[in-house]
């Protein structure tokens, strides 16, 4: 099968700066209390539904996969970039990390208690997003939870706007439109957080965290 260009360019870009990325995000999100709060809520919800494996899709260097593990989850990671996966394996030898794409996951139907996609849908062209959400829905077991985080914008007339991300072409998304798409895929909304960008941030995009479940 011919690989779409966006996957090839995203992989090449992250491969070339994986070590730098890992250095920048070496701490356990101590300086991101709201991100941590959403991850803790996600972990609690997954456990309340009986646990089950949790996949961190687009896990990068695995720092958040490690955090989920520290919250008591059976967490593993998948990433497009072999360099990211090599770093994640070295940093967390006790956890499973595999190279793969969220557009076609090598995971069985109904096999997961939770899916995390933290800033990893941002390089997906908008027309490919329904395919990615269908994959999330396919691999989650009934009652499973999905936590999505992404750079947002406040214009619901546009699903996505592109921006000049440091690594590769990226999109920030309308939380309302993403939520609509998730509902059409069969997910039910549990909660959402809109975080204002701090004044010192390079880009003044709000950050969205959407928590959904598969009924
Ligand atoms: C901005 S980084 C986020 C990494 C990590 N989730 C975090 O919270 O820091 C985006 C990551 O998503 C991965 N990624 C992008 N598109 C992907 C896809 N289709 N399938 C799997 N991983 C993907 C990239 O390789 C990169 O490691």
From TrEMBL:
Question: GO annotations under biological process?
Answer: methylation
Positions of transmembrane segments: none
InterPro entries of this UniProt entry?
Methyltransf_25 (IPR041698), SAM-dependent_MTases_sf (IPR029063)
**Keywords assigned by UniProt, alphabetized:** Methyltransferase, Transferase
CDD domains xref list: AdoMet_MTases (cd02440)
List the Gene Ontology MF annotations in alphabetical order.
methyltransferase activity
* Domain Methyltransferase stretches: 54-144
Q: Mind telling me which Gene3D superfamilies this protein's record contains?
A: Vaccinia Virus protein VP39
Q: Which PANTHER family match?
A: TRANS-ACONITATE 2-METHYLTRANSFERASE (PTHR43861:SF1), TRANS-ACONITATE 2-METHYLTRANSFERASE-RELATED (PTHR43861)
Q: What is the official name of this protein in its record? A: Class I SAM-dependent methyltransferase
